[in-house]
Structure formats: C-alpha cells, structure tokens
UniProtKB/TrEMBL annotation:
Name of protein: Glucose--fructose oxidoreductase
Pfam families in UniProt: GFO_IDH_MocA, GFO_IDH_MocA_C3
PANTHER family per record: CONSERVED EXPRESSED OXIDOREDUCTASE (EUROFUNG), OXIDOREDUCTASE
Enzyme Commission numbers on file: 1.1.99.28
Keywords from the UniProt entry: Oxidoreductase
Domain Gfo/Idh/MocA-like oxidoreductase N-terminal: 4-132
Annotated GFO/IDH/MocA-like oxidoreductase domain residues: 141-271
Any one GO molecular-function label of the UniProt entry: nucleotide binding
Top EC category: oxidoreductase
Amino acid sequence: MRLRLGMVGGGEGAFIGAVHRLAARMDDEFELVAGAFSSDAENCRRTGERLHLDPQRCYRDFSRMAQAEAARADGIDAVAIVTPNYLHAPVASAFLNAGIDVICDKPLCNSYAEALQLAETVRRSGRQLILTHNYSAYPLVREARSRVLAGELGELRFIEVEYLQEWLAQPLELTDNKQAGWRAQPEKAGAGCIGDVGTHAWQLAQFVSGLLPQAISAELSTFIAGRRLDDDVRVQMRYANGAKGRLWASQVACGHENGLRLRVYGSEGSLAFCQEQPNQLWVRPRDAPAYCITRASSFQYAENRQLARVPAGHPEGYLEGFGQIYREAARRLREGPQAAPLLPGIEAGVQGMAFIDAAQRSSLAGGEWIDIEEFIFH
C-alpha cells in the first residue's frame, strides 16, 4: 500500500514542489493526498484542483493541516516541505509534534541555533526527518563512496568539490523572478549561495569521502552591487588524518549551469565525478591507466548497479536521484532507519547548518580558521 503524502509549499509558480511530486510518484511508494501549497488561498485552491485533490484537504495554513491530518484515520504518513528556507523549521516542528514524519528540502533551516532546536524536536517526537540531498543518491556517487570506503584510493590526501552556476550573475532579484526574489532576502533564505548550493557541495564531499573536516577557513563574497547575501564562496578544509580540502560554490560563475563536481585523491589513486555527466565516474589508479565506470555497467559494485532505473546508455540523473531519495524514504518510514542507512537525515542537516555558520564567522574574521565539531546524538 502506498504511503500517504502531504506537501507544504509547491504551489503555482514554484519549481521544487513539482520535482518532489514527480520523485514521490516515481516508484509508486507515495500518493499525494493533502497540501498547504501557498499562503495565497486562491493559489492553494488552484494547485489542489490541478492535482485532483479533495478540496477539504487543501489547507490555508500548515498548522491547521498538521492538526487536521493527525486527527484523521486516513491522515498523511509524511509531509514534504518545499517552502523557502525560513519556513522549514516551523513547518517541520508542527508536523513532528503532531506525530507525522518529515521529508524536507535543503538546507535544513535558517540558522545553526534553529537547527539544534529542530534536532531536539526530532528527538522528543520520536519521528523521522529526511533531508533531500538528491545528488548523494546518484548510482555513481554511491559507487564513488563504496570505492573510497573500501580503501581503493588508499589514504585520502585531497578533496576538491565545486558547485558553479551563472544564473544570478545579473540582479534577477530586482525582476519578477520568484526563485531569485526570496533567495536574495536574508529573512527568507538565511544564507545565499553557501546555503543554496554550497551545502550540496559540502554534503557530497562528506558523503563520498566519509570524512568531516575538523576546521575550515572561508571567504564569502557578494559580486552583485546591492545584493544582501553572498553569491560566491571559497572554503579551505583541514581533516583529522592530515588531508586537505577545497570547496568553491558560486552563482555568478558565467558559463556554468549546474557544475557540481567532486574529485577525491588518495595515496593509491583518485576519482572524479561531474553531475552534468552523471553516468560516468572516472577512476585513476596510481601507475595504471585511467578508466571510466558507466552507470549500470558490470564494473559497478552490485549494490550500486541495482540502483539504476533505466538500461545502460540511457541518461539518468537529477529526477531519478530525487526518486531514489523518496524510494529509500518509504523504506525507512516503513522499516526504520536501519533500512536506508545512506539517506541524509537530521544529523546531515545540522552538520550543513554548522558548516554555514562556521563559514560565515570565518569570513567575517578575515578567513580565520574555525573548528567544526560533528553533531552527535545523545
């Protein structure tokens, strides 16, 4: 039986809500049955009508939705949060406190302090919060992680990650572009480029390497005059084993669309993954020819090969990555965290917010090195 899904945000004019709805339906694990799609009542009504939902389950605000759905015998099993960042924590808290599991878009919330409060809410509620870092679900990203953790690269020495875009190279926030508009407001976004795409790069590097930096030094820049948040981020990283890392995230890098790229170097070889070519993973052993592993090929580890949704040679990427997150979310909601151990959750969310906080403090202090401690549940 499919799990019943609700959604907060994702009304007319939104982008990521449609992505989540497609992903949730991809494996027939979820059925969307309720939503508070917009603070605009007419937008919410039209969205619900277009999605063929019961008008009685299209709510004017998320608090009412959480209470009403928790009281129904056929209420939702989980809610997907696809709002601007400033609403993530209050919406998640409302549903967690109502006994409903949460699937939330990244970043987790607006501040590190808010993230710690939300983590406590998750602990008290006994419910689950799943964070949709979709790139970590790509089959070849999982393959890269498997090979690194199996020791194929030897002792890790360098980790290089970048996420480059150009879409904010002009002040789109001064136009009627809805996506640019809220992302340029500190009150709604919390952070700029570092939160929007920097956290993707941060999580990907950590996910594949299995390492969390001990300390970082950062420079956050704003290249567009009058812009209130950062649009370019440069971070140096130090690891406990002596490895070094660099992260560059930018939304003003002309010529780049969604250039998420990861390279990991060790004593016995290196590997490289580029999100814009998601069906290829390059491996370069020491003193041996480089080779390319393609998605769904016999060269993949079996547990990663089975993640492929279409035959080898057919493109697979962004939407399927989201689909895999929802497939594993369904498994976790039914069977518990042990059923989907690689799925990002509250800990990944808190670590992402700790990264943003440390990077902002470092930048304000002229690039001072800031210690980062891994969030540990007690």
